Amino acid sequence: MFPRCLKLVTVRRGLNFTSVRCAANNSPSSTTKLSKEQMKKKELRALLQKRAAAKKSPFEHPLYMPVQQAFRFLRAAEVGQPPSQQTISLTTVVVSDKGAPLLSGNILFPNPLRDVKVAVFTNNKEQEEVAREQFKCHLVGGTELIEAIKNGDTPIDFDKALATPDVVAQLTSQLASVLGPRRLLPAVKKGTVSENIANLIRENMFTVPFRQRGPFLSVAVGKCDFSDKQLLQNIVAVQKAFKQALADQQGKKSSILGKTTVTSTHGPGIVIDFR
């Protein structure tokens, strides 16, 4: 009997040893490592699927419409709404690798969505005449304009301020505390100071910044009372700016643009050809 019991004990010990060894192989560290690898593979598969979807022709999408037909649908959706709320916007999906820099840039609209009040500070009479006569700027002047704003005689009711180099020092010393908090103080770094006031006005009066939010780029491209030609011109300007942002992107792999939709304030999203 004794040898038999000893044998049974030995077998049980052997089984216990085997169980312990198996448990060691399924330790938390091994499971975690496997999970990370699985997560990486899952993320890679999802990225490849998104890239494949982004490369699909927009004509295959069930919500696709030719862009001019889309405009008609969106205008119909806004009938009876206040004109101030009838804005047409464009949204593009951005497919990026993890950690890729966000896309950003500026759009030079040939047909601005709203009037921008521009103040031009210059003591150069020729530049002053260009700003006043050619571009009809809201406020134009040099030392006298700076003094008027400083004394409160002229209200700060403009959207952008531009200047020529000859008045920058005076602007900074007298109006920095007033214009600075409003982000209206002209500065070379901000691209609002130049000898050529005409180019400066064109670049700032009709330019709208954009920045990627999550996986989307979204900008307003016009109002419902814009003509088809005006809307198309603005969309072409958006396309050009988005492609420039892709070209300027710093990273191992550049992002790609996917599905693009146009929508209005109260209308549906309609897929268009934005390639």
TrEMBL record:
Pfam families: Ribosomal_L1. The keyword Cytoplasm does not apply. GO terms for biological process: translation. Keywords: Ribonucleoprotein, Ribosomal protein. GO terms for cellular component: mitochondrial large ribosomal subunit. One of its GO terms (molecular function) is structural constituent of ribosome. Belongs to the universal ribosomal protein uL1 family. This is Ribosomal protein. The lineage of its organism: Eukaryota, Fungi, Dikarya, Ascomycota, Saccharomycotina.
